[in-house]
Predict the 3D structure of the following.
Amino acid sequence: MSTNNAELAERFVKEHLSGYDSGHDWWHIARVRDMAVHIHEAERKGNKTIIEFGALMHDLGDSKFKKKDDPDPGEVISEFLNGLGIDNEQITEVIRINRYISFSSREKNSKMSDEFMIVQDADRLDAIGAIGIARAFSYGGFRNNPIYIPDEILSGSSRSTTGHFHDKLLKLKDMMNTATGRKIAEDRHKILEKFLEQFFNEWYFKNTV
Ligand code: ADP
Ligand code: NI
């Protein structure tokens, strides 16, 4: 990606992210882009331009933050990338990444491209490890969710943020698409387990002197 296109894309993405919580801010996007490029280089797979644009635009129009009259993210992305002179096939793939990346829509995407798998791994890696923990509590705070509900039945859509660890975060390491992603996920997964263990030790006075 040329420096000029990179700058224009950054500006475009920053404009479209206002209103999201701090776990979905520009720095999340920048981390996902950098991790996606890292995986791309380690795996030697995928087209770098699609990966970079796909990572930069993966959260545009996220349904969690969507307002009623917001335009379709595919149209917004298409218009912007057309303006940069990106070819149609690449634009289509960037839009597919945006549309199908989220955890809940994974079933709808039967044929995954290398670019899709790499950006999805990078996004999922940012949801685990120390940063993942910080983001989960940031999002929980944004929604005013309790940090923990002792008698909560874990249903897959928990109200508490520790419940969200079980609903989603602890499952991510086994959902990685690439070998590089899987390797990075292992360490980050251990941090989640350690964190939960300590959290419950403190909550239930275990090992307390
Ligand atoms: P993705 O779009 O990557 O599939 P989400 O947008 O659902 O995933 O999640 C992005 C970030 O917000 C992650 O760090 C995730 O842990 C956090 N998050 C999403 N839902 C919740 C929730 N109910 N409680 C706490 N954190 C959440
Ligand atoms: Ni994301």
User: Anything to note?
Assistant: The chain has a mean pLDDT of 91. The two ends are 56 Å apart (CA to CA).
